[in-house]
Design goal:
This protein has 115 residues and is mostly helical. It has 2 domains: 47 residues, no CATH class; 43 residues, no CATH class. It contains 6 helices and 2 strands, in the order αβααβααα. The protein has a two-stranded parallel ribbon. It is globular, with a radius of gyration of 18 Å.
Length: 115
Amino acid sequence: MLEWLFLLRGAPDYLRSDNGPEFVAFALQRWLRDRHCNTMYIKPGSPWENPLIESFNGTFRGECLNRWVFANGQEAQVVTEQWWQEYNLHRPHSSLGYLAPAVFAERARLSLNLD
């Protein structure tokens, strides 16, 4: 996925991530270095270094996870997928001028002639 994104949009100067095992793997660090992309790690216990994901996590917990007692993994997948669809496609976001993400993306695509 990163390879495709780097080809599509170019490699960023830095890739910022937490210290999860998938992001400290030597193979990934080498792959990023070969593409002239540096890594920046968020210090453990420092949510202020990544406020966007922390905001999303709080929203997801408050609006979805705390409202359900899932009977099983399948129910959890269905409910969270429905919430994700609503959040990412239909729900207005203040950061997008109170447009739904799908509407914002379509307007951006049309204004940039990305066809």
